[in-house]
Amino acid sequence: MKAFEYFSPKTIEEVSEILIKYGKEAILMAGGTDLIVRMKEGEISPKFLVDLKKIPNLNKIEWDGESIKIGALTTIHQIESSPIVQEKLEILSKAASVLGSFQIRNKGTVGGNLCHASPSADLAPPLIALDGKGYIRGKNGERKEALENFFVGPGLTIMNPDEILTEIQIPIPLPNTNGTYLKFSPRKAMDLAVVSVATLITLDSLNLICTHAKIVLGAVAPIPIRARKAEALLEGRKIEDVLVQEASQVAAEESKPISDIRGSAWYRKELVMVLVERSITQSIEKIKL
Hints:
With 289 residues, the protein is of the alpha+beta class. The chain has 3 domains: 5-51, Uridine Diphospho-n-acetylenolpyruvylglucosamine Reductase, domain 2, CATH 3.30.43; 61-171, Uridine Diphospho-n-acetylenolpyruvylglucosamine Reductase, domain 3, CATH 3.30.465; 177-286, Enolase-like, domain 1 (2-Layer Sandwich), CATH 3.30.390. The strands form 4 sheets. The protein has a 5-stranded antiparallel beta sheet with strand order 4-5-10-6-7. It has a 4-stranded antiparallel beta sheet with strand order 11-12-13-14. Strands 1-3-2 form a 3-stranded parallel beta sheet, with helices on one face. 45% of the residues are buried. α9 packs antiparallel against α10 and α10 (241-254) runs antiparallel to α11 (265-286). It is built from 11 helices and 14 strands.
């Protein structure tokens, strides 16, 4: 690992100043679970390392009755074990529970997981399905952006060079709504997803018609993507086995996977079909009408 200069700012304004001054030579560190490994392996060699841990109010989980706010430095384990997240946002709690090992979940943060912008990031699909919004702050103040629009490409987000992600805000799902996050990886823990799927379904309690559907696919495109055609196929119709199978096939057609060391494009499309069918079925089974 090459030598670097270390900064530990106490305010977001300090962070912006450092980023403006040093540009791409400065790298932010939240949990450091991915960054430190890449630095040790020589993959990246920042001249300036900016540790965000001493900035107050970025490590929190708050519920105001309408939405849950999660600070960007909140650890994956905090999300996994939070009683309010388990109760109100089960799909997010479950996704956190399958992210890496306990050691990684205890250090890694939601902000780091999102800002690394990996196509296989575990928290991105459920947060997009939940209509999560990201609060972004920089020299020009604060802005709020839908996480669905947050990702630009592998390792790339919409954030400007002087900006950082400070908070995620998630509205409480509608009544008669539930969701499922499923991930396929060679091992039960540690591995990145070969394919992941987050599904959120809302049913009309009187006639069991699907009134709202979100299906978000991970690791099958440069960024997490919604299977919009599959969603539209479900909405306004009673969920039956034939319809679920058709929607899963459509979702597979919407995916845009590549072939790599973890799986071929064809294999990933087959996995999308299987996981979408399972996730829709499990989501409906969880809804208590």
